[in-house]
Amino acid sequence: MTIRPISHIDIDRTYALAFGTPELRVSSSFGFMDSDEFRAALLDSSSVSLCAADEGSVIGFIHASTRDLDLALEKHWACIVYLAVSPDFRHRGYARQLLAACLQELRRRGITHVYGWARAGGPIIPFLSAGGFSVGHEYVWMDAAL
């Protein structure tokens, strides 16, 4: 298994993994985001998008947004938007390796703080807590189609 930046050739496989991961559903009324929006986010050069690949297959990925790096701010924040590992490859340390590689790249780019969103009761909360994250605020997601 190798961890590397996501490229154009990984997008379809990464999208299939994301689309099939229940924890990444946008909301109870909408599935995962559209593929073109996903592609734009993952290939945005201001973001950190890494995949875990095994024999050419994408088995996991992480995506963090770093939109405020160009601003003259004391603290530079990144948001971990997605972290997913295929169910067949979970509990092997791949998510931990993806997170560590992402945090290393964020530090290299000058990010000083990181946060993420997590579904209440989801398995990501204990995972991130074990990695040094603290529970911040709790929110209720609300959405509507226009």
> At CATH's second level, what is the architecture?
3-Layer(aba) Sandwich
Strand content: 15-25%
Estimate nothing, just give the exact number of structural domains.
Answer: 1
Structural class: alpha+beta
Q: What's the helix count?
A: 4
CATH H-level homologous superfamily name? Gcn5-related N-acetyltransferase (GNAT)
The count of DSSP E runs of length 2 or more, i.e. the number of strands, is: 5
What's the gyration radius in Å? 15 Å
Major sheet size, sense and barrel closure = 5 strands, mixed
Strand order of the largest sheet: 1-2-3-4-5
In the CATH scheme, the class would be: Alpha Beta
Q: Any idea what the shape is?
A: globular
Average pLDDT works out at 87
**Which series of helices and strands comes N to C?**
EHHEEEHEH
How far apart, in Å, are the first and last alpha carbons? 42 Å
Helical amount: 25-40%
List the uncertain runs: none
The CATH topology is: Aminopeptidase
